[in-house]
Design goal:
There is one protein chain. The chain has about 190 residues and is mainly alpha-helical. The chain is about 80% helix and about 0% strand. It has nine helices and no strands. Helix 5 packs antiparallel against helix 7. The longest helix is centred in the C-terminal third of the chain and has 36 residues. It is elongated.
């Protein structure tokens, strides 16, 4: 099943709809979806290394726009949808502490958490709830998300063929490591939030 899913994403990279699918996942991940766009970005960059920079740009733009949607959820719908999403991911009891931290370290919170596997939707929703400066939220989101996705794309562009061989020969191991990092990101968010 895992190999079929991987092959599906590799095949998707050949379709004209590939950037749209990547944008959809990246948008959703920044506001409500639990799976990061890396699950599509990595195989797509491996399938078409010449498009890696384009895919990173699509991921960045869609993530920032999705982040604005998450910000709106926090600013306008926190009591209903925002609180539900924050509690769904297990961070409901820590929102007040996070909001207070924004007053002193808002720039650093966005920059650091945007680079890590910590769910970015928590940052976007809480930024809206804390009424963090929308201008700085967008600027810092472009920097941190762009850095993250262009770093991934760059690495895959330069070491693509050997990375692809490694991933395809050890798909189960790579998937397990990715799952550990993803779960670790959620756990870190709970303890560091």
């Amino acid at each position: 099943m895992l190999r079929r899913l991987y092959q599906w994403v590799i095949d998707l990279a050949e379709r004209p709809s590939a950037p749209w699918a990547l944008a959809g996942v990246s948008f959703a991940e920044s506001s409500f979806f639990p799976v990061p766009p890396d699950v599509m970005l990595v195989p797509m960059c491996l399938a078409r290394p010449s498009r890696a920079w384009w895919y990173a740009a699509v991921c960045t733009l869609a993530s920032v726009v999705g982040g604005l949607f998450g910000y709106a959820i926090g600013a306008l719908l926190y009591e209903s949808l925002g609180l539900f999403l924050i509690q769904l991911y297990g961070y409901g009891s820590r929102v007040e502490a996070f909001t207070q931290a924004y007053q002193q370290y808002g720039h650093w919170i966005i920059l650091i958490k945007g680079l890590t596997p910590i769910p970015y939707k928590v940052v976007t929703i809480t930024s809206g709830f804390a009424h963090y400066s929308l201008f700085w939220f967008v600027v810092l989101s472009v920097i941190t998300r762009g850095l993250r996705f262009f770093l991934v794309a760059g690495l895959l562009y330069w070491i693509g063929p050997s990375a692809r061989r490694f991933i395809e020969e050890r798909l189960g191991l790579v998937t397990a490591i990715f799952a550990v990092v993803l779960v670790g990101g959620f756990a870190a968010a709970v303890f560091l939030f």
